[in-house]
Amino acid sequence: MVNYWERVEDIIKTHNLFHLKLDIELPKESIQEVQAVYDEKFFVEHRGKKHKGWDSTCIHGIDGDYWKTMSGKQYNYESDSDKNIKWDWTDVCYYAPKTVEFFKKDIPLKNYRRLRYMLLRPGGYILEHSDTPSGIPYTTRKQTSIFSALNICITQPKDCVLEHLSNGVVPFKPLEVYMFNNDEYHHAYNNSEENRFHIIAHAEYDYDFAELFVKSFEKNYEHSI
Ligand SMILES: [Fe+2]
Question: Is pTM, for the whole model, over 0.85?
Fold first, then answer.
């Protein structure tokens, strides 16, 4: 019998993955739901010097507070791995029932940490950066970098991109779910007149996720890389 985690190890050892589209989609209701969350004014400015028009709100986060969108360090914890953090679902969930159901039942993830809506406003941008602790990509490629975060597209206006410096634009379409390697340099901009809504998810991956990873890779990538 195939052991999917062994297959995952083999794939990430032999392929330098910048992104991986997963063979699963957000429910279409997610588009109206994020609009309701926006209309209810849940989004807060996501601090930082390297971006403009970058707002966020937590679906699941530290102490169940929707406004705690930054990493644990900003709230006096060691990091998001700090065992003292109480992670919980937030009030945003009441406005996004189908989206929440997707994360609780459909996608094989567990023990969510930060699960956030991210808004890039018209004219907004995020300058080139790497999300490693040092802010510089690892000199020796880390095979697990592709597991650093999930980036899920809800809306994708024209002339709005998320792009790796050395691998180009991620070809997002609404409702598509991607794994995204945020250790490599990347940047984003929204040159449209519309809000661009995505979700960034940090969680643990269970065995069913390994199966999804392998099947998605075989379907979407194996013959093109
Ligand atoms: Fe980033």
Answer: yes
**Ligand 1: centre distance to CA 155 (Å):** 18
Domain edges within the chain: 4-62+86-141+149-220
What phi-psi label fits residue 34: left (phi over 0), alpha (psi between -120 and 50 degrees) or beta?
alpha
DSSP 158: T
Task: Using the mean position of ligand 1's atoms as its centre, give its distance from the Cα of residue 2 in Å.
Answer: 34
Ligand 1: distance of its center to the CA of 132 in Å?
Answer: 9
CATH code that applies to domain 4-62+86-141+149-220: 2.60.120.330
pLDDT digits (tens, 9 = 90+) for 155-183: 999 999 999 999 999 999 999 999 999 99
Ligand 1 is an ion; residues with CB less than 5 A from it:
131, 182
Q: What is the pLDDT of residues 66-109, one digit of tens each?
A: 999 999 999 999 989 999 999 999 999 999 999 999 999 999 99
Residues 6+ away with beta carbon under 8 Å from 213: 4, 8, 11, 20, 22, 179, 205
* Nearest of 143, 175, 197, 146 to residue 23 by alpha carbon: 175
The alpha carbon of 6 and the centre of ligand 1 are apart by a number of angstroms equal to 28
End-to-end CA distance of the chain: 26
DSSP bridge partners of 52 = 125
What residues have CB less than 8 Å from 168, skipping those under 6 apart?
A: none
> What distance in angstroms lies between residue 8's CA and the mean position of ligand 1's atoms?
24
